[in-house]
Amino acid sequence: MIVYELACSHGHRFEGWFASNDAYAEQRGRALVTCPVCDDAAVDRVPSARVSVSKGAPPAPAAQPAVTPTPAPDVAASLPAEVLAVLRDMVKRTENVGRAFAEEARKIHYDEAPARPIRGQASTEEAQELREEGIDCASLPPFLLPDQH
């Protein structure tokens, strides 16, 4: 197994395990290597501080200082990829009503529109008013939104 340090075009760093360099190249070419944080398929190898030395071989001289991995940018980096996939799938199944979120949420709550999962934008004041009316709503982190990662 080969472990590569990878990064997506959004700067999220993670590691990938591959049977060989050819396996990595083939999977990357088919867009199967994606970022576990934002699902971006624009992934490249980045310098790694990992060094593999064969048994009995002398250590290679250090040509440059080791690269320190970038800390996780947000909570998404600490979530298992399977959890992120399920959450993103749930969000994709919602209807994006955009700026009409508060209005549409009220219509659904008061049975003036068909009940369905929706998402959109609401101001802090609109969200507070919805909660005061007994309408549950919550903010979604950007890494879960299909058009934000």
Tell me what the structure shows:
This protein has 149 residues and is of the alpha+beta class. The protein folds into two domains: 1-50, no CATH class; 83-144, no CATH class. It contains four helices and five strands. It has helices at 21-29, 81-92, 101-109, 124-132; strands at 2-8, 13-18, 43-45, 95-98, 118-120. The strands form two sheets. A three-stranded antiparallel sheet has the order 2-1-3. Strands 4-5 form a two-stranded parallel ribbon.
Task: Please describe the topology of this protein.
Layout: E1 2-8, E2 13-18, H1 21-29, E3 43-45, H2 81-92, E4 95-98, H3 101-109, E5 118-120, H4 124-132
Parallel strand pairs: 4-5
Antiparallel strand pairs: 1-2, 1-3
State the gist of this model:
This protein is α+β, with helices and mostly antiparallel strands and 149 residues long. 26% of the residues lie in helices and 15% in strands.
